[in-house]
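SEQUENCE-TO-STRUCTURE ENTRY
===========================
Question of interest: how does this chain fold, as expressed in backbone structure tokens?
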Amino acid sequence: MKTMKINNLQKYYTRIIGVFFLLVAISLIFDFINFGHRAETWHKIFHVLLGIIIIKFGWNNKNFWKPFCIANGAFFTFVALFGLTFPNFANLDAFNSIDTLLHSIAGISGLIIGFMKSKI
């Protein structure tokens, strides 16, 4: 039973991250209309492409969920730590306080959920 609950956490973490990353497309469109092409455009394109990959390959693939939680968690925890160490690095939105907070939440929760073990 515990294994099933952990799988559900991993499944829903993966799905939620995929949907939120895909929703960054809305911000990308408005950002591009208002500012044109800039470095932040690539940051948002990265999130949208990752969201597409997650939804395409990870939505119903239970073999994807745990490794994704760990890999995504590790990557975004690193990005968050970088953002904390070098706030507003190169004036990129990816390292402003709000994005650093969002990266921290996505990263730490992914690591916790990814490394959860059942006692069964």
